[in-house]
Write a structure and sequence with these properties.
By secondary structure, the chain is of the alpha+beta class. Helices cover about 15% and strands about 45% of the residues. The protein has a domain of about 100 residues: Immunoglobulin-like, CATH 2.60.40.3080.
Length: about 160
């Protein structure tokens, strides 16, 4: 009777532990993290799991992982008075393949972009074709790049892009 009881107990423990592992399979062990609030907004971060794979489809994109790394770095901008004329977003950053430049241009003027490498060498220049412009970084090596958005007269904004 003791052998049968022992075998059943071991079987129940094995089944129970495998169910627990399945339930917690998609969680991450975070080493640190916080929620920070300020006058410009709120950010939540976790140090632990990150993902660098972005899947792009015809209707948008999705990034894998629990929390995504993001760095929004504005190098330069127009004066505060002119700032309200443009709303520019560059995403995803960091990226593996593409970045999207989304511009709400209240002046309806032609804008262009220039992509520079870390040594400030111009590697691509083109017009911003739409409200959302897709810039390919597939052929580029993993590095830091600078994306300068400008109109005919002035540099509007420069972003630091990280290519993984």
């Amino acid at each position: 009777m003791n052998k049968l009881y022992f075998k059943i107990l071991v079987l129940v423990l094995l089944i129970n532990s495998s169910l627990i592992l399945c339930i917690y399979a998609q969680e991450t062990v975070a080493t640190a993290g916080a929620d920070i609030s300020g006058t410009d907004g709120t950010i939540s971060f976790t140090v632990g799991q990150i993902a660098n794979k972005t899947i792009i489809g015809s209707n948008g994109y999705i990034s894998e992982g629990v929390h995504q790394p993001i760095e929004i770095s504005t190098i330069s901008k127009l004066t505060k008075e002119d700032k309200s004329d443009y709303e520019i977003n560059v995403y995803p950053n960091p990226t593996n393949e593409f970045v999207f430049v989304k511009i709400n241009n209240k002046k309806s003027e032609q804008l262009n972009y220039q992509l520079f490498d870390i040594n400030n060498k111009l590697i691509e220049s083109n017009n911003v074709s739409d409200i959302e412009t897709k810039i390919s970084l597939i052929e580029r090596k993993a590095s830091t790049y600078f994306l300068k958005i400008s109109n005919q007269a002035n540099e509007i904004q420069t972003f630091k892009i990280i290519k993984n």
